[in-house]
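Ops channel
N.P.: pipeline sanity check, posting one input/output pair.
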């Protein structure tokens, strides 16, 4: 079966849409972007996504194929795995089953444990008591230490070995948000390996293309 053509409903600054675009750019896959207005989603997105949010990937197969002519795929980590499994060149999931499980565990941790505290820091900081902020700071440092330890124990420059994987692609947009949040979380400067890892990903040509305002529309 031939590979589908891809249309991505995205919002350039959304970290979850960023995951998908980074995956597509790392694998050098052609795709079309529909840049959504978050206050007025397109009719196509509203019809295809049950929660009406980005990212949304529409995969289109040729009408002659026995597979469905098109399929709507949502949830960023599901999209990235679909893309990686469908377009097999430049794989972004490790060969080892244990390492693939680690990618998924790190993604789960990022979405379910780190992101809620990141959102507290970004959006609710002024509403926290001093005690609540102290507890949040402890948790945030624990999160930072976790990734610093993962990088220290890796056999390469990435979270899992010598090559970039979906673990790096799934985590980096959230840490990029944290680093850009105001006020600056000063403790971030203490984590040298995490900062080096983040800067190395932001320096990749794929990320430059992700952030290019001249979208492929």
């Amino acid at each position: 079966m031939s590979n589908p053509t891809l249309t991505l409903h995205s919002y350039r600054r959304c970290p979850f849409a960023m995951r998908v675009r980074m995956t597509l750019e790392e694998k050098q896959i052609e795709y079309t972007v529909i840049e959504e207005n978050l206050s007025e989603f397109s009719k196509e997105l509203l019809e295809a996504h049950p929660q009406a949010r980005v990212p949304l990937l529409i995969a289109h197969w040729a009408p002659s194929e026995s597979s469905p002519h098109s399929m709507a795929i949502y949830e960023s980590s599901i999209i990235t795995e679909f893309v990686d499994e469908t377009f097999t060149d430049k794989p972004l999931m490790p060969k080892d089953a244990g390492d693939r499980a680690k990618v998924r565990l790190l993604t789960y941790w990022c979405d379910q444990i780190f992101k809620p505290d990141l959102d507290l820091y970004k959006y609710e900081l002024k509403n926290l008591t001093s005690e609540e902020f102290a507890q949040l700071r402890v948790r945030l440092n624990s999160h930072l230490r976790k990734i610093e330890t993962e990088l220290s124990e890796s056999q390469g420059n990435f979270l899992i070995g010598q090559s970039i994987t979906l673990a790096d692609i799934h985590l980096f947009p959230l840490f990029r948000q944290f680093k850009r949040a105001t006020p600056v979380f000063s403790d971030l400067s203490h984590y040298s390996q995490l900062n080096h890892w983040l800067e190395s990903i932001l320096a990749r040509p794929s990320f430059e293309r992700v952030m290019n305002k001249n979208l492929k529309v």
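N.P.: looks fine end to end. The domain at 5-92 is CATH 3.40.30.10 (Glutaredoxin).
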